[in-house]
Design goal:
heterodimer; A: mainly beta; 4-stranded antiparallel β-sheet; globular; B: 109 residues; mainly beta; 5-stranded antiparallel β-sheet
């Protein structure tokens, strides 16, 4: 089983619909992240969380919200999806603060979202 | 910005050749990491070099870091078709990793 699991892997929805992307991890890491990837733009940070009670905005948080339900779970919501939120979304965890403490990220396989 | 910027952004080589990618960044860092992404898949960590290191090797990978020039390079030796992927550098500073736009490498069999 993957260490970082994202669901759904693919989703097509319509403008105005509420969408939730879920992420769960078995790495035991405190830090979790949501990134968005668009062609030619690399990865951009949406939100990140350093522990269950900590939520922080990234570069492009407008139009998104998150929930850290437990150490292992971090969900990303689009309250009212719009076409320019069509992208590949990645969840990641980090070992920062752990024994290795390198800041290495461990990524899920991605959730491809299309908003029509 | 802390974001890494890869150069060249696209590279096409023959199998067996070496592939070299460069990365520049603008602020001080704790370490610099390189990641690989196969088409449409999640990124996978390749190698990390700390700010006090100048060179590091892992299998066919060699990474260098020049903090005075704020630059790093990734060399893949004896490339294989399976090395076809996008490669991202990510400097770590202020407890955050900042990814560049990536370097697309195509290895022709």
């Amino acid at each position: 089983d993957a260490d970082v699991t994202q669901t759904p892997r693919n989703r097509i929805t319509k403008t105005g619909k509420r969408i939730m992307l879920e992420c769960s991890q078995t790495k035991g890491h405190d830090r979790m992240y949501w990134y968005r990837q668009d062609p030619g733009l690399g990865l951009r940070l949406i939100y990140y969380s350093f522990d269950v009670k900590d939520i922080n905005k990234g570069e492009i948080s407008d139009g998104y919200s998150v929930s850290r339900q437990a150490q292992a779970k971090f969900s990303l919501s689009l309250e009212s999806a719009i076409p320019n939120q069509t992208a590949l979304y990645f969840c990641a965890t980090s070992d920062f603060g752990g024994p290795a403490n390198t800041g290495e990220l461990f990524f899920g396989e991605g959730s491809r979202l299309t908003v029509l | 910005s802390q974001q890494g910027e890869e150069d060249p952004q696209a590279l096409s080589i023959q199998e067996g050749e070496n592939a070299t990618m460069n990365c520049s960044y603008k602020t001080s860092i704790n370490n610099l990491q390189w990641y690989r992404q196969n088409s449409g898949r999640g990124l996978v960590h390749l190698i990390l070099i700390r700010s006090n290191e100048r060179e590091k090797h892992s299998g066919r990978l060699r990474v260098t870091l020049d903090t005075s020039k704020k630059s790093s390079s990734l060399l893949i030796t004896a490339s294989r078709a399976a090395d076809t992927a996008s490669y991202f550098c990510a400097p770590l500073g202020n407890n955050r990793l900042a990814f560049g736009k990536g370097n697309q490498v195509v290895v022709i069999p």
